[in-house]
Amino acid sequence: MESIIEVNDLTKTYKKTDAVKHITFDVKEGEIFGFLGPNGAGKSTTINMICTMLAPTSGTISINGFDVKKQKDKVRESIGIIFQENTLDEKLTANENLMLHCRFYKVPKEKREERIREVLEIVDLVKERRQRVETFSGGMKRRLEIARGLLHYPKVLFLDEPTVGLDPQTRAHLWEYILKLKEKEGITMFLTTHYLDEAEISDRVAIMDQGEIIAMDTPAALKNELGGDIIELSTENNEKALAEIREKIDGAEVSMEEDTIHVKVASSDAFISTFIKTLTIPVTKLNIRKPTLNDVFLAFTGRKIGEAED
Ligand SMILES: Nc1ncnc2c1ncn2[C@@H]1O[C@H](COP(=O)(O)OP(=O)(O)OP(=O)(O)O)[C@@H](O)[C@H]1O
């Protein structure tokens, strides 16, 4: 697959902060690329530089073959951006919002109606197009913003925390639309999120922490790298049980969090049979699961993504 975004040795230094430190990566045409990290990791700073809105301190970026520093207009024609905050005009109808954007992006007059209908069909808002945006639900507004981002046929769509502030059901719906877009239109998508479950949708994920990319691969490969199973259990005396597991079971990585003991093992089958024979403290709760991206973040940084934000 061809690269559509190439970022090379990119840095951004503010007076007191190295917000982005020498990052290098590429995004392939047609993929969903997820940028993952806690608040303050440097995600927005990186996106802003890629989208021509912020000048890098050093390094190079090209999008669709255009240099971000020297060919800003060409880059801007190649991208669509969905910001974190709502930027629609609430007093206008969906159609009027899109018309305004067509003018802004100089979509030819005779093409506007047709193009607006096309993008509204993609996000399922054709029927509602004459309604004022202020009457829309949060999810409908996000979909309209996506439609607007698509009006000028961008090659890459940037979605910065697209589901922030939406309820779980609306979030799930929005992801369905995003996947449909990838499949039907073949648009490359660059998304940031700090919801680890949402990053699973990505073809590849880059995990960013304190201005650096600390891991990058498919979600499956990142999780496989950790290997094994994670066992979560509670007992009648967690302190004692923790000591017993440490003492009696070889090769188990053990930690305790609130009232749950976490044990990382190569194979849960082998662990459970030894465990039943050796543990003397009664178990009150037991759960076996595969690693998640949260565990990947924890393994790379020593912190959970939530803790990293505190
Ligand atoms: N204009 C600025 N001036 C000085 N420091 C800044 C500026 N913008 C960002 N920073 C700092 O750079 C670092 C990275 O911030 P950035 O907003 O890129 O993180 P983020 O991963 O996008 O987080 P969020 O999800 O909260 O947007 C932070 O330490 C932030 O305080």
Automatic annotation (TrEMBL):
Transmembrane segments: none
Pfam families recorded: ABC_tran (PF00005), DrrA1-3_C (PF13732)
Keywords assigned by UniProt, alphabetized: ATP-binding, Cell membrane, Membrane, Nucleotide-binding, Translocase, Transport
The organism's place on the tree of life at top rank: Bacteria
Membrane topology term: Peripheral membrane protein
GO process terms (BP): daunorubicin transport; doxorubicin transport
Keyword flag Cell cycle: no
One cellular component (GO) term of this entry: plasma membrane
Subcellular location: Cell membrane
UniProt domain ABC transporter: residue ranges: 5-235
Keyword Translocase among record annotations: yes
Name of the protein in its database record: ATP-binding cassette domain-containing protein
